Amino acid sequence: MRLISLAVLGSLFLVNATATVLAFPARSADAQERGRSAESTRRPNIVLILVDDLGWADLACYGSDLHQTPNVDALANRGMRFTDAYASAPVCSPTRAALLSGKHPARMHMTIWREAAKTPPLKRKVIPPITVADLPLSIVTIAERLKDAGYLTAHIGKWHLGDAAHYPETQGFDFEVGGTHWGCPSTFFHPYRGMSHGELRYVPGLGLGKQDDYLTDRLTDQALGFIDAAKDRPFFLYMAYYTVHTPIEGKPNLVKRFQKKLRPAMRHANPAYAAMVYSMDENVGRILDHIKKSHLDDRTLVILTSDNGGFINRWGPFPAVTNNAPLRSGKGSLYEGGIRVPLIVRWPGVTRAAATCSEPVVLTDVYPTILEAVDLKKDTSESFDGFSWVPLLRDAASELPRNSLFWHYPHYYPTTTPVSAMRSGNWKLLEYLEDYRLELYDLSVDPGERKNLATTNRAKADQMRDRLHAWRKEVGAQMPTTCHAKGAPKANSD
Which helix (H) or strand (E) element contains residue 255? Predict the structure, then answer.
């Protein structure tokens, strides 16, 4: 892998407090030829928008009763909305790793965010495994594949997949702004730095700014500059917003607006969070409008989704950050509220307007989907745990060639103890790893996972448990350990 510094790839020149100009080096003859080839086959530009911690029910087009998301709703009206889309994990880093690699987090041993990977809690009933903290450089990411095919690639926003030796520039991205090994900023307001979790955190690469500048807006400024800099080259924009993760900080005028809209019966009742969702939507609209004004609308594939379910714990003076109802629980949990996410895909000439797809899909599918969309053959050395959505994008009634989805989270979170899960058809099984307790639900009649059928339908529960155990063995999933009296840990086994 050839590494080139960000200073060479993109120089930032200050124009004003909120705008920058990006300059990229001239392409080599080989790169120019690749670019001409991509142009001649009209390979689509790819815009992948990942919103941090956005819950399944947080968008108006998914049923929110407080949040206003007109731009995302318009995207759904022009493309396909998935009702049964899932994150690859119930927390951020594992899903991000799966999205870029096409591999299941359990296979990569990346099942928790990097700050917790090396330091599992020891005073719990079981001890979570020590996991991989940095996305290995040996993994060929979707950015690397696209770059080799002549695409200009950019990562803007949250990275959270490794230290400086594993930043986006080492994983196929020509241009990068905002990415660090941290999972959230200390503040969404200029200068985006301050003490957080016992250390000084900051968001790099945004240059000078002014008071009241908002991080979501400034990251979008960078995205618009990148689109302009790409000119006639096909591009891959990975727009990884920090919002709507904590700290829950909306623009004050928007917070006041949503406070006035609150009603006692509303499921969503946090005006600060509603303000963050609204700002996210505004900036998605800015990107979509810029693509249209740049005459790229008809050849740009847009994917918008979230890395896990909505965060249901409390933050600040308001009630719970969000509410994933009718789904159960939230971020960290393997109940539907922790892993089911919004997913909207618009591909002009392929997706039908206002289409809805109920086929279960997972974000591990993003890599093979993009490969097929840009007509790149899978390398003979590549293997994926996901499947391309292209058949679904062409026909929402299609089915993918798999019958089960799997999750593995051998860790603790405020919403869960260590747990594995699988979905097969409409059946959902959870196995809690402290005591191997089973829970079985029929999502067709019980999407809120309220009636545990593991006892009344023991044959189905045992059948799915055996399949789940076989899958864990197949991917080499790490298991939590128990402590003996002498202190020696013993791995729990299937």
Answer: helix 252-261
- The Cα–Cα gap between 266 and 322 comes to 11
**pLDDT mean over 260-284:** 97
For the full predicted model, state whether its pTM sits above 0.70. Answer: yes
Q: Where are the beta strands (DSSP E) in 120-212?
A: 152-157, 175-177, 193-196, 199-202
Tell me: pLDDT of 231 over 70. Answer: yes
* Beta carbons within 10 angstroms of residue 484's beta carbon: 9
User: What type of residue sits at position 256?
Assistant: K
Q: Report whether 143 contacts 153 (CB < 8 A).
A: yes
DSSP 423: E
Using CB atoms within 10 Å of the CB of residue 157, give its burial: 0 to 12 exposed, 13 to 18 middle, 19+ buried: buried
**Residues 71/291, Cβ–Cβ less than 8 Å:** no
Cα atoms in the 13 Å half-sphere on the side-chain side of 451: 10
Class of domain 6-405 as given by CATH: alpha beta
Q: Please write the tens of the pLDDT for every residue from 90-138.
A: 999 999 999 999 999 999 999 999 999 999 999 999 999 999 999 999 9
Residue found under tokens 């001649």? 40
